[in-house]
Amino acid sequence: MCKEISVKELTLDTLFNLSPTYQNCRQSFEGIWQFAYEYETRFTAVCNHPFSNITACQRPGINFQIENQRFYMNYRKCHDVDSSFDAQYRYACLGQWVADNGNRYIVAVNMGEEQNFLRFTCFVDRTDQDLLMTKSRTASCSELKSAREGYEQLRLAHVKSETVLPSCKFPADYMGVWYNTANYDSEVTINDTHMIEVTKPNQGKPETVYYVCDESKGTRYMVAKLGIGGCQVDYMCFDFVRRHHSVIRYRQGRLYPLGDFRSVCTWSSFDNNPRWKYQVLVSVNPVAINCPIRGMFFFEQSGQTRLTVRDGVTKFPFDPLLECTKRNQQLSICPDSPDTIKIDMNKCDTLDYRARNVNYKYEILDYKWRCIAWWSEDTNGQLYTYDPEDGFSKYRCWVYQRDEYGQISLSRSHKDSCGLWQTPHDDVTPENLNLKLVLKNAERQCN
Q1: Contacts of 356 (CB under 8 A, 6+ apart)
Q2: Backbone angles phi, psi at 91, to 5 degrees
Q3: Residue 434 backbone dihedrals phi, psi, to 5 degrees
Q4: Could you read off the pLDDT of 59-118 as tens digits, one per residue?
Q5: What is residue 284's three-state secondary structure?
Q6: Is the dihedral of CA 219, 220, 226, 228 positive or negative?
Q7: What pTM does this model have?
Q8: d(C-alpha 341, C-alpha 282), whole Å
Q9: Which three-class secondary structure state does DSSP give residue 98?
């Protein structure tokens, strides 16, 4: 008999335990959300009051666990919406689940309501975005069709709730906009006293985190970490290396609930991995510098993303008056542009009667990488290049080493930051590197 029931046409009823066990609200609601509200039947206008909010502040370690199982909805009356109202409701979380279509159902109980059919409430939002939500009128989740269709519609926005006054300043040469290679698509803005990091994940809305300078000693800075929507202030330590070219290297410690510099910035609060490396901030507007390598090289490459002819195939012959008998892949850093790595994937290696390179009229460079920073770390050299035409990442990190007098090895990681165990001689694997170059001196002079 049960097989005859059509799942697509099935309407599920909701049963609530009259003596429920409350759950922690962190998975359902966390932080402070300002909301605009409207109703299907009560009024059609939207009441968007700045002080209408959902407050769900978690307090880790509190003796009264019930405080972490409740949240508050504060409604404020809009003067231009007649049926809007002032009210405060206190809810306790009962749980949540996610449907196959991506709708997330959140169930709560109104602590100030005595009638059971009005006491229990259902909320619906989406797992891929949490800025739209609907709320049921009665103890039934079936009346909510989606995050846009329901008895009460809510439009949510995160609110920054905590404020910490700065007590120290960052170095003046740190000011500006930086790209954080430690996080995917993350931009950091630094001023005298604050660092503001905006991370854009593949799915969902951008996440903003504020770091407020609280105390400093030498290269270590204790900051207060404030998130948009969070109610808790955490403290952490940054250990900076002085700005070098267009990069700032740093490492960060663990989070602490109290702002004690001796505890937060102790050296044991940082990563204890014996092969740790500094994370890198790269300037959004980098300035090119002289590259650490100089000369003309032929190279061999290996990896998944090998260099190819970027500008397409040029018709042969390049110059009808000259004949090219030998071609090579060439990398050059010449005195006329010592800050640029130039690569020609189809360079003519023919010499004229004076043993000089033949200059063709229509030869086009395939790659131009500008050197923006380089330094030595873990007995290897690290190099950052900038290519605005790179479709994957404008910034690339290389590890290089001179193997012998006429040979240099370079390796490039998958992302815009070098791997923790990356060396110039690593095997090219999907988990490790995506490009490896072996440069051999061409014994030629730049034209």
Answers
A1: 447
A2: -115, 150
A3: -120, -5
A4: 655 545 566 788 899 999 998 888 888 999 999 999 888 888 888 899 999 988 888 888
A5: coil
A6: positive
A7: 0.76
A8: 19
A9: strand
C-alpha angle 132-233-195 in degrees, rounded to nearest 5: 85
Token pair listed for 130: 């949490």
Q: How far apart are the first and last CA of the chain?
A: 87
Q: Do 371 and 290 meet the contact criterion of CB atoms below 8 Å apart?
A: yes
Q: Which two tokens stand for residue 314?
A: 């040029």
Q: How does pLDDT run across 407-427, given as a tens digit for each residue?
A: 999 998 877 888 877 888 877
Tens of pLDDT along 156-168? 988 876 788 999 9
| SS3 label, residue 217 | strand
Contact 261, 279 (CB under 8 A): no
Residues in the chain: 447
Q: Where are the alpha helices (DSSP H) in 175-326?
A: 261-264
At residue 443, does pLDDT exceed 90? no
Cβ atoms of 442 and 296 within 8 Å: the answer is: yes
Of 132, 124, 101, nearest to 205 by C-alpha is 132
Beta carbons within 10 angstroms of residue 369's beta carbon:
23
**Percentage with pLDDT > 70 across the chain:** 87
Q: Which residues pair with 413 in a beta bridge?
A: 433
The pair of three-digit structure tokens given for residue 308, joined into one six-digit string: 């190819």
